[in-house]
Amino acid sequence: MSAKHIRPEEIERELPAAEDDGFTERQAAEEVGEGISPAAQELERVKAERDSLVDRLARLQAEFENYRKRSQREQLEFKEYAVSEAVRSLLPGLDSLDLALKNATEEHSDLLQGIELTRKQLLDALFKLGLRKIVAEGQVFDPQMHQAVEMVDTAEAPDHQILQELQPGYMLKGRLLRPAMVRVARNPNH
């Protein structure tokens, strides 16, 4: 007699339909005291294996999704870090252009216009990358945004008001790139 290969769906078709009352076929058979047929045992084993594989697949899919999200987040952080380092390295050049404009004389007006245009182009490119200048002069000193270089005793300004910006500060996409270097009023009357 040759052994016939029986697929799990054929076994399910041949078994009598049971009402779904929370019992498995095995539990029902044990309650009645009947032995479990080899086909039913095989079906239970295959169902358990299937459930285990489906659970494992779901876990692997969740792990892969978490990995993909983490990888995207790391790529974005690296890109933002690279942009911030590039912008930070350009700030001294911007400071030099500002200093050249501040100390320029009217003798070389064509050169002065060229420097102004170069500065504007550089600032426009940096602003497109998310660079924003920190407003300092006339503001209240904020140690998270400003770096106090000097405290000046004066009765003409409120205590902790910024009197002068010595070097501009910048934010890049909402993060401090460089604090503004400032002179701050110290009002002895307060």
Give me a quick take on this structure.
With 190 residues, the chain is α+β, with helices and mostly antiparallel strands.
What does this molecule look like?
This protein is α+β, with helices and mostly antiparallel strands and 190 residues long. Among the domains are: 9-69, no CATH class; 133-190, Head domain of nucleotide exchange factor GrpE (Nucleotide Exchange Factor Grpe, Chain A, domain 2, Roll), CATH 2.30.22. It is built from four helices and six strands; from the N terminus they run H-H-H-H-E-E-E-E-E-E. It has helices spanning 8-14, 25-32, 38-102, 109-128, and strands at 131-133, 146-153, 162-167, 170-172, 175-178, 180-186. The strands form two sheets. Strands 1-4-5 form a three-stranded antiparallel beta sheet. A hairpin with a 2-residue loop joins strand 4 and strand 5.
Task: Write the SSE topology.
Layout: H1 8-14, H2 25-32, H3 38-102, H4 109-128, E1 131-133, E2 146-153, E3 162-167, E4 170-172, E5 175-178, E6 180-186
Parallel strand pairs: 2-6
Antiparallel strand pairs: 1-4, 3-6, 4-5
Helix pairs in contact: 3-4
Could you give the order of the helices and strands?
A: HHHHEEEEEE
Range of strand content: 15-25%
Helix content: 40-55%
Number of extended strands = 6
- How many helices does DSSP assign? 4
In oligomeric terms, what are we looking at? single chain
First and last CA, distance: 107 Å
User: Radius of gyration in whole Å, from Cα?
Assistant: 37 Å
Look at the structure and give the mean pLDDT: 84
Q: How would you classify the helix and strand content by structural class?
A: alpha+beta
